[in-house]
Amino acid sequence: MQLTLQTTREDHRIAWLAALAITIHIAESALPSPIPGIKPGLANIVTIIVLMQFGWTTAVWVALLRVVVGSLLVGTFLTPTFMLSLGGAVASLAVLGIASRLPGRGVGPVGYCVLAAMTHIAAQFWIAYWLFIPHDALFHLLPVLMTAAVIAGLVTGVIARAVLDRLSDTDYGRHPAAAAAD
Amino acid sequence: MTRADWVIVISAVALLPFLYALYWGNAAPGDRVLVLVNGKQVLAASLATDTEFTVDGPLGTSHIKVHGGQVRFTDSPCANKLCVHTGWLQHGGEFAACLPNRVSLVVSGLNNRYDTINF
After folding, report:
1. pLDDT at position A42 over 70
2. How sure is the predictor about A81, in pLDDT bands with cuts at 50, 70 and 90?
3. Domains in chain B: boundaries
4. Based on the number of CB atoms within 10 Å of its own CB, is B38 exposed (0-12), middle (13-18) or buried (19 or more)?
5. Interchain pair B115, A135: CB under 8 A
6. Going residue by residue through chain B (119 aa), what tens digit of pLDDT does each one get?
7. Cβ(A47)–Cβ(A63) under 8 Å?
8. Taking chain B, what is the end-to-end CA distance rounded to the nearest angstrom?
9. I want to staple B59 with a disulfide (CB 3.0 to 4.6 A). Which of A168, B4, B77, B84 is the partner?
10. How many CB atoms lie within 10 A of CB A152?
11. Model-level pTM greater than 0.80?
12. Virtual torsion, Cα A68, A74, A80, A86, nearest 10 deg
């Protein structure tokens, strides 16, 4: 029996974008980090660009596929690293979902990236405290991690804005909501 | 940068000093002392009120004094009196122990100076 899967244009788009996010995710995991647990979150740039170009649902698909497939390829699937990664992604997607429904001109790439980075860290911190290191001394790390998150959010936000500026020149596959927000 | 962007960025940056003050502030003086005999807590007292009390251990009676937000052993039935020589304790996490009499004091506070101590 032959099984045929009908794939839509949307499916292909998600697959391409997820592949891009996974590539950045893996490239980033090879970068040395000055402090364990702190990384710039470059893959998040893809999530934000997808959010602004194609909407929240596509962004959820791309981010979750990136976490699952990325961890399979790096070899951290179902490890504590994966739990932290997934928790951060789910929490930041939830916050992005709320932020993208704000009235008015809405949030731009820099705001989204800062929100996403801080939510990532907050969720990961909470998971680490709850599951792995339930000790109050962990809270001494929180200010450093949050500082790193704000800086990372600003840097990735500026990169995301630059990419979006280039994309708007071509106006490829622009999401109506994002177009209206300009 | 939209107005929402500015609100997010400014509140994010404003949050940071607050976090540093909250979690990196000086180790606060402890506010309570816990007295343990044989590893079990037998009483807890506030450091805010000056008081003296005694605790009975296997060897005899240990005397403990709380004064001016500090606490110490003042007398003990043990031979070396290490617990008495430890002196005043005031910061969260500081402790004094009398191993022969199995009595120990632990100051508890929001920010403890030590996480754990091993010998």
Report:
1. yes
2. confident
3. 32-108
4. exposed
5. yes
6. 888 899 999 999 999 998 888 887 655 667 888 888 988 888 888 888 888 989 998 888 999 999 888 899 999 888 888 889 988 888 777 788 888 889 988 887 765 666 666 66
7. yes
8. 56
9. B77
10. 23
11. no
12. -30
Point out the residue among A106, A147, A154 whose CB comes nearest to the CB of B16.
A147
Type and span of the H or E element at B32: strand B32-37
Task: Find out whether A159 and B18 touch, Cβ atoms under 8 Å.
Answer: no
A5 conformational bin, left if phi > 0, alpha if psi -120 to 50, beta if neither: beta
Q: Identify all chain B residues contacting A115, using CB atoms and an 8 Å cutoff.
A: 8
**Chain A positions in Cβ-Cβ contact with residue B16 (cut-off 8 Å):** 143, 146-147, 150
Q: Would you call B3 and A147 a contact, using CB atoms and an 8 Å cutoff?
A: no
Residues from chain B that touch A92, judged by Cβ atoms under 8 A, are: none
Q: Which domains does chain A have, with CATH numbers?
A: 9-176 (1.10.1760.20)
Lookup: tokens for A148: 């790193």
- Measuring CA to CA, which residue among B30, B49, B50 is closest to residue B96? B30
What 3-state class would DSSP assign to B17?
Answer: helix
Confidence class for position A90, pLDDT limits 50, 70, 90: very high
Burial class for A172, CB neighbours closer than 10 Å (0-12, 13-18, 19+): exposed
ipTM exceeding cut-off 0.85 for this assembly = no
- Residue linked to tokens 């009483």: B43
Structure-derived torsion over alpha carbons of residues A64, A179, A41, A113, reported in degrees to the nearest 10: -110
- Cα A136 from Cα B24, distance rounded (Å): 12
